[in-house]
Protein backbone atom coordinates (compact mmCIF):
# COMPACT_ATOMS: atom_id res chain seq x y z
CA UNK A 1 0.00 0.00 0.00
CA UNK A 2 1.30 3.46 -0.93
CA UNK A 3 2.42 5.50 2.07
CA UNK A 4 0.48 8.68 2.80
CA UNK A 5 2.52 11.72 1.70
CA UNK A 6 1.97 13.51 5.02
CA UNK A 7 3.45 10.52 6.88
CA UNK A 8 6.48 10.42 4.58
CA UNK A 9 7.03 14.18 4.89
CA UNK A 10 6.77 14.02 8.68
CA UNK A 11 9.32 11.21 8.85
CA UNK A 12 11.72 13.00 6.53
CA UNK A 13 11.44 16.16 8.59
CA UNK A 14 12.25 14.21 11.75
CA UNK A 15 15.31 12.76 10.04
CA UNK A 16 16.46 16.21 8.96
CA UNK A 17 15.89 17.66 12.43
CA UNK A 18 18.03 14.90 13.89
CA UNK A 19 20.87 15.53 11.45
CA UNK A 20 20.64 19.28 12.01
CA UNK A 21 20.96 18.86 15.77
CA UNK A 22 23.82 16.33 15.64
CA UNK A 23 25.60 17.21 12.42
CA UNK A 24 25.25 13.63 11.18
CA UNK A 25 23.24 10.46 11.75
CA UNK A 26 23.58 6.73 11.12
CA UNK A 27 21.06 4.78 9.05
CA UNK A 28 20.67 2.03 11.65
CA UNK A 29 20.06 4.51 14.47
CA UNK A 30 17.43 6.38 12.47
CA UNK A 31 15.72 3.14 11.42
CA UNK A 32 15.50 1.96 15.03
CA UNK A 33 14.26 5.31 16.33
CA UNK A 34 11.60 5.77 13.62
CA UNK A 35 10.64 2.09 13.44
CA UNK A 36 11.16 1.74 9.69
CA UNK A 37 13.55 -0.30 7.56
CA UNK A 38 17.10 0.85 6.76
CA UNK A 39 16.09 0.86 3.09
CA UNK A 40 13.39 3.42 3.85
CA UNK A 41 15.89 5.60 5.70
CA UNK A 42 18.35 5.38 2.80
CA UNK A 43 15.62 6.54 0.42
CA UNK A 44 14.79 9.44 2.72
CA UNK A 45 18.46 10.41 2.93
CA UNK A 46 18.67 10.25 -0.86
CA UNK A 47 15.75 12.70 -1.00
CA UNK A 48 17.57 15.15 1.29
CA UNK A 49 20.82 14.70 -0.63
CA UNK A 50 19.07 15.61 -3.88
CA UNK A 51 17.72 18.71 -2.12
CA UNK A 52 21.29 19.69 -1.19
CA UNK A 53 20.69 19.32 2.54
CA UNK A 54 22.97 16.37 3.37
CA UNK A 55 25.91 14.45 2.04
CA UNK A 56 25.55 10.69 2.28
CA UNK A 57 28.35 8.35 3.24
CA UNK A 58 28.44 4.61 3.90
CA UNK A 59 26.03 3.94 6.76
CA UNK A 60 24.73 7.48 7.25
CA UNK A 61 24.68 11.14 6.23
CA UNK A 62 26.11 14.45 7.41
CA UNK A 63 24.69 17.95 7.31
CA UNK A 64 25.33 20.44 4.51
CA UNK A 65 22.67 23.03 5.28
CA UNK A 66 19.54 23.46 7.39
CA UNK A 67 16.20 22.93 5.68
CA UNK A 68 13.72 22.21 8.47
CA UNK A 69 12.70 24.56 11.27
CA UNK A 70 12.34 23.12 14.74
CA UNK A 71 10.75 24.79 17.74
CA UNK A 72 12.17 22.20 20.14
CA UNK A 73 15.36 23.75 21.62
CA UNK A 74 16.71 20.26 22.24
CA UNK A 75 16.74 19.59 18.49
CA UNK A 76 17.53 23.07 17.20
CA UNK A 77 20.80 24.91 16.77
CA UNK A 78 19.18 28.33 16.32
CA UNK A 79 20.09 29.58 19.80
CA UNK A 80 23.72 28.62 19.22
CA UNK A 81 23.79 30.22 15.78
CA UNK A 82 22.37 33.48 17.14
CA UNK A 83 24.87 33.47 20.02
CA UNK A 84 27.74 33.04 17.53
CA UNK A 85 26.44 35.76 15.22
CA UNK A 86 25.79 38.25 18.04
CA UNK A 87 29.27 37.75 19.46
CA UNK A 88 30.88 38.07 16.02
CA UNK A 89 29.08 41.37 15.37
CA UNK A 90 31.04 43.07 18.16
CA UNK A 91 34.18 42.84 15.99
CA UNK A 92 32.58 44.97 13.28
CA UNK A 93 33.73 48.58 13.46
CA UNK A 94 32.25 51.77 12.07
CA UNK A 95 33.42 52.17 8.47
CA UNK A 96 34.14 48.48 7.88
CA UNK A 97 33.52 46.67 4.63
CA UNK A 98 32.86 43.02 5.39
CA UNK A 99 32.41 39.80 3.46
CA UNK A 100 29.62 37.37 4.39
CA UNK A 101 29.22 34.10 2.49
CA UNK A 102 26.20 31.81 2.04
CA UNK A 103 26.25 30.53 5.61
CA UNK A 104 23.02 31.01 7.56
CA UNK A 105 25.05 31.65 10.73
CA UNK A 106 27.24 34.28 9.07
CA UNK A 107 24.16 35.95 7.60
CA UNK A 108 22.73 36.41 11.10
CA UNK A 109 25.59 38.83 11.86
CA UNK A 110 23.57 41.40 9.90
CA UNK A 111 20.90 41.35 12.59
CA UNK A 112 23.35 42.31 15.34
CA UNK A 113 25.30 45.17 13.73
CA UNK A 114 23.91 48.31 15.38
CA UNK A 115 24.63 52.04 14.98
CA UNK A 116 27.62 51.59 12.68
CA UNK A 117 28.10 52.55 9.06
CA UNK A 118 29.07 49.25 7.48
CA UNK A 119 29.10 47.91 3.93
CA UNK A 120 28.31 44.19 3.60
CA UNK A 121 29.39 42.35 0.46
CA UNK A 122 27.70 38.97 0.15
CA UNK A 123 26.80 36.26 -2.34
CA UNK A 124 23.90 35.20 -0.10
CA UNK A 125 20.63 36.03 -1.84
CA UNK A 126 18.74 35.62 1.44
CA UNK A 127 20.35 38.85 2.67
CA UNK A 128 17.54 40.85 1.05
CA UNK A 129 15.05 39.24 3.46
CA UNK A 130 17.05 40.06 6.61
CA UNK A 131 16.09 42.85 8.98
CA UNK A 132 19.10 45.10 9.52
CA UNK A 133 20.10 48.51 10.82
CA UNK A 134 19.50 51.26 8.21
CA UNK A 135 23.14 52.32 8.57
CA UNK A 136 24.21 48.97 7.09
CA UNK A 137 24.48 48.87 3.29
CA UNK A 138 24.13 45.47 1.61
CA UNK A 139 25.75 44.82 -1.78
CA UNK A 140 25.01 41.54 -3.54
CA UNK A 141 27.79 39.99 -5.59
CA UNK A 142 25.49 39.00 -8.43
CA UNK A 143 26.12 35.80 -10.35
CA UNK A 144 24.34 32.56 -11.09
CA UNK A 145 21.60 32.01 -8.50
CA UNK A 146 21.56 28.47 -7.13
CA UNK A 147 18.32 27.20 -5.62
CA UNK A 148 17.32 26.26 -2.94
CA UNK A 149 20.22 27.81 -1.03
CA UNK A 150 19.90 31.08 -2.96
CA UNK A 151 23.64 31.45 -3.28
CA UNK A 152 25.27 33.45 -6.07
CA UNK A 153 28.25 31.80 -7.74
CA UNK A 154 30.13 31.67 -11.03
CA UNK A 155 32.39 33.97 -13.02
CA UNK A 156 30.16 37.04 -12.68
CA UNK A 157 30.21 36.82 -8.88
CA UNK A 158 33.96 36.14 -8.80
CA UNK A 159 34.72 39.07 -11.09
CA UNK A 160 32.80 41.45 -8.82
CA UNK A 161 34.31 40.12 -5.60
CA UNK A 162 37.83 40.42 -7.02
CA UNK A 163 37.28 44.19 -7.25
CA UNK A 164 36.64 44.50 -3.50
CA UNK A 165 38.99 44.61 -0.52
CA UNK A 166 37.18 43.88 2.74
CA UNK A 167 38.41 44.81 6.19
CA UNK A 168 36.92 41.65 7.72
CA UNK A 169 35.37 38.38 6.54
CA UNK A 170 32.71 36.38 8.39
CA UNK A 171 32.40 32.95 6.84
CA UNK A 172 30.42 29.85 7.66
CA UNK A 173 31.20 26.35 6.47
CA UNK A 174 30.04 22.76 6.20
CA UNK A 175 33.03 21.62 8.24
CA UNK A 176 36.08 23.02 10.03
CA UNK A 177 39.05 21.00 11.29
CA UNK A 178 42.79 21.13 11.76
CA UNK A 179 43.24 18.47 9.10
CA UNK A 180 41.33 20.18 6.28
CA UNK A 181 40.57 23.70 7.44
CA UNK A 182 37.34 25.12 6.01
CA UNK A 183 35.41 22.63 3.87
CA UNK A 184 32.14 22.61 1.96
CA UNK A 185 30.07 20.01 0.17
CA UNK A 186 29.18 22.45 -2.64
CA UNK A 187 31.90 22.72 -5.27
CA UNK A 188 30.59 25.95 -6.81
CA UNK A 189 31.04 27.82 -3.53
CA UNK A 190 34.74 26.99 -3.13
CA UNK A 191 36.04 29.68 -5.48
CA UNK A 192 33.78 32.30 -3.85
CA UNK A 193 35.06 31.44 -0.38
CA UNK A 194 38.67 31.49 -1.61
CA UNK A 195 38.26 34.98 -3.07
CA UNK A 196 36.66 36.28 0.14
CA UNK A 197 39.62 34.95 2.11
CA UNK A 198 42.30 36.32 -0.20
CA UNK A 199 40.58 39.71 -0.70
CA UNK A 200 40.20 40.28 3.05
CA UNK A 201 42.93 42.64 4.30
CA UNK A 202 41.95 42.24 7.96
CA UNK A 203 40.78 39.45 10.22
CA UNK A 204 38.98 36.39 8.89
CA UNK A 205 36.40 34.70 11.14
CA UNK A 206 34.92 31.22 10.91
CA UNK A 207 31.43 31.06 12.43
CA UNK A 208 30.40 27.46 13.04
CA UNK A 209 28.24 25.66 15.59
CA UNK A 210 29.41 22.44 17.21
CA UNK A 211 28.00 20.21 14.46
CA UNK A 212 30.61 21.58 12.03
CA UNK A 213 33.71 21.29 14.24
CA UNK A 214 35.97 18.33 13.46
CA UNK A 215 33.89 17.53 10.36
CA UNK A 216 35.39 17.34 6.88
CA UNK A 217 33.54 17.67 3.58
CA UNK A 218 34.62 17.09 0.01
CA UNK A 219 35.97 20.50 -1.02
CA UNK A 220 38.52 22.67 0.77
CA UNK A 221 38.00 26.45 0.73
CA UNK A 222 40.91 27.42 2.97
CA UNK A 223 43.49 25.76 5.18
CA UNK A 224 43.53 26.44 8.90
CA UNK A 225 46.30 29.04 8.58
CA UNK A 226 43.91 31.28 6.62
CA UNK A 227 41.77 32.07 9.68
CA UNK A 228 42.23 34.31 12.70
CA UNK A 229 39.18 33.42 14.78
CA UNK A 230 36.81 30.49 15.27
CA UNK A 231 33.58 31.40 17.04
CA UNK A 232 31.59 28.33 18.05
CA UNK A 233 29.58 26.98 21.00
CA UNK A 234 30.38 25.05 24.14
CA UNK A 235 29.27 21.70 22.67
CA UNK A 236 32.13 21.63 20.17
CA UNK A 237 34.57 18.72 20.75
CA UNK A 238 37.28 19.86 23.16
CA UNK A 239 40.10 17.85 21.59
CA UNK A 240 39.51 19.39 18.17
CA UNK A 241 39.20 22.88 19.66
CA UNK A 242 42.55 22.45 21.42
CA UNK A 243 44.19 21.38 18.18
CA UNK A 244 42.69 24.38 16.38
CA UNK A 245 44.02 26.71 19.08
CA UNK A 246 47.47 25.13 18.82
CA UNK A 247 47.36 25.82 15.08
CA UNK A 248 47.15 29.53 15.90
CA UNK A 249 43.42 30.21 15.57
CA UNK A 250 41.87 32.22 18.42
CA UNK A 251 38.86 30.22 19.61
CA UNK A 252 35.72 31.43 21.36
CA UNK A 253 33.07 29.05 22.74
CA UNK A 254 29.65 30.34 23.71
CA UNK A 255 26.49 29.34 25.54
CA UNK A 256 23.22 29.46 23.59
CA UNK A 257 21.41 32.77 23.29
CA UNK A 258 18.30 32.39 25.45
CA UNK A 259 16.36 35.27 23.89
CA UNK A 260 16.14 35.85 20.15
CA UNK A 261 14.58 39.17 19.17
CA UNK A 262 11.31 38.99 17.26
CA UNK A 263 12.53 41.36 14.55
CA UNK A 264 14.47 38.59 12.85
CA UNK A 265 12.91 37.75 9.49
CA UNK A 266 12.84 34.10 8.46
CA UNK A 267 12.25 32.75 5.02
CATH class assignment of the largest domain? Alpha Beta
The percent range for helix content is 25-40%
CATH fold group of the largest domain:
Rossmann fold
Kindly give the count of domains.
2
Keywords: DNA-binding, Transcription, Transcription regulation
Domain HTH deoR-type: 8-63
GO molecular function: DNA binding; DNA-binding transcription factor activity
InterPro entries: Carb_Metab_HTH_regulators, DeoR-like_C, DeoR_HTH, HTH_ArsR_DNA-bd_dom, NagB/RpiA_transferase-like, Tscrpt_reg_HTH_DeoR_CS, WH-like_DNA-bd_sf, WH_DNA-bd_sf
List keywords for this structure.
single chain, 267 residues, alpha/beta, Arc Repressor Mutant, subunit A, Rossmann fold, 2 domains, 7-stranded parallel sheet, 3-stranded antiparallel sheet, 9 helices, disordered C terminus
What do these coordinates show?
This protein has 9 helices and 15 strands. It is of the alpha/beta class. It has 2 domains: 1-63, Winged helix-like DNA-binding domain superfamily/Winged helix DNA-binding domain (Arc Repressor Mutant, subunit A), CATH 1.10.10; 77-254, Rossmann fold (3-Layer(aba) Sandwich), CATH 3.40.50. Strands 6-5-4-9-12-14-15 form a 7-stranded parallel sheet.
Give a brief outline of the structure.
One of its GO terms (molecular function) is DNA binding. The protein is α/β, with parallel strands linked by helices and 267 residues long. The chain is built from nine helices and 15 strands.
